[in-house]
Structure formats: structure tokens, C-alpha cells
Amino acid sequence: MKRRNTDSKKAILELLESSKSALSHDMIQGIISRNIDRATIYRVLNRFCEDKIVRRIVGDDGKQYFAYCINCVEKKQKNNHFHFRCTQCGKVECLNEEVKVALPDGYEMHNFNGIVSGICSDCASLRSGE
Amino acid sequence: MKRRNTDSKKAILELLESSKSALSHDMIQGIISRNIDRATIYRVLNRFCEDKIVRRIVGDDGKQYFAYCINCVEKKQKNNHFHFRCTQCGKVECLNEEVKVALPDGYEMHNFNGIVSGICSDCASLRSGE
DNA sequence: ATTTTATTGCGACATTATCGCAATTAAGGA
DNA sequence: TCCTTAATTGCGATAATGTCGCAATAAAAT
């Protein structure tokens, strides 16, 4: 199935490329000025994931976040790393340190999803009165 | 708030204790013979998590799984480890190897959620004709 | 036995994500 | 440039998971 270059696709990809953190569907919808339908955003994102342009991270809040992840996508290397989700500001960012997981014999890994949640340094310093 | 010892609570806890893998709400509802309301099951499980009797794991399918996790709960040690979710049979099991995550300065970790999904050895061997 | 209040069951609700289908529109060829 | 094809979109409906309010129930203590 050939991909087409639509405005929605371009807008979402640009947004993800320029964003330092992973974005959820509603973050994307909130940021983007064009009015793109909810279902379309999901479909565009799912296509990106199929094409391995973007990584899908499932948060410990059960929501999906999408990240361009230069490190892991462009280099096409399997650089498994954690993401940190701040429960205060909602930001989901890469923790660059690589993580290795050893599976028992006969197990096949298809997806890695490592999430740590808590308070990011920005929110922590705001809270303590900075 | 004092806890009471109800039949639902006992049944669910026994099930989790005797189960080798983490269970989702619908697994629990499917296994348990007594007819317990969906909301009740969730509430019992949430209480267990509050009391740190049970650990909540959020799968990369976005669903919550609950595990008694002898290693991490009884010993009250923070033994962060991954869980493996088989996308074929649905089983979610502990990978015992401990994982350490280094956070940047000023970050606070409140929750660790490491999931690897793929095919477990049982399903893999079935598939290849065993 | 009576009181207190944690717990349950039921239904409604919230949220996240997907799907079917008709209408658009990008891309390639005439 | 116009036409054709089929990928994509928008809309509404739907699925799935989880929570909440409230009245009824029942565990625990007096």
C-alpha cells in the first residue's frame, strides 16, 4: 500500500520531529493548528509506526505516546531505553541509557516498553518553591 | 480506613497468590466462580495496590495486570523487574532479573513499569509444530 | 442485638482508541 | 492538463477499559 503525502501527515510528522518529548494523540490535537479529525490522527500515527518512522510508547497511564526518537528510529538500531513520564506536567521523554533485557530460552521479544513515572526536575523545583 | 475481610476480597487474593502470572480484570472475572461485579473487582484490586499487597503492571496493550509478586511485595524490597507479555496466549509473567534505571538529577521515580512483549516459549514451540 | 461504616451491585459515565462508509484528494498515466 | 485509481479523510458509531454515585448489604465492634 503506497503512502501519500498529505497535509495531515506532514503536519503531524513535523510536530513529532520538532518535539523533544513523546506526544499523545490529545497533545497533538491540542498543538496542531489545522483541524484534523481524531481518527485521522490515530491512523496517521499508526501508519508511522508500521513504517517504523515513529515509536509507540504505552505509558503507565495506559495511554499511547508517539515519539520520533532520532536515536532509535533513524539509526535503525535496537536501542531499547526507558521513557520518563512526569505525572505533574505530562511530559514523556527519553532516558537515553540503553537497557538490555535477558529473556529465558525460547522467548521472542517483539516489543520493548519501559516506562518510569514520577516528577521531572522542572516540576520538582517548581514545587519546592525554587 | 479499616479494611474488611469479604468473600470477594478473599477469593481474588487467593487467586492472585496461586497464580504464577499477573492477571487482568477480565482474566480474574473469567476464572472466579463466584459472580463478582466488575466494579467490585477493580475496587478490590485498587485497594490491594494501595496496601502494597499487589503490584499493578500496565501492559503495552494498555491494560492493567495485577500480580502478587512474592519477590517484590513480601520482601518489601524495591526489586524493579520486567514483565513479559505473550501476545499469543496473553500470559504476563515476571522476568526475575533486576533492572536499575538511572534518572537525571532532580528526577523522582514513583513508579517503574517495564514490559516486554512477544511470544513465550510455550507458544513458540506450539507454533513450530512442537 | 444494635450500631457503624466499609463494601457491594447496579447503572451510568468517562476516556481512549478503532471501524465502516461515503466523500476527498494525491499520484501517476494518457 | 485531464482522468483514473485508490489511499486518505471526516463523520458518526462502536468497542474496550476503567471509574463513580448511590442505595443496599454486611463485617466488625460495642
Automatic annotation (TrEMBL), chains A, B:
Pfam families: FUR
Top-level taxon of origin: Bacteria
Record-given protein name: Transcriptional repressor
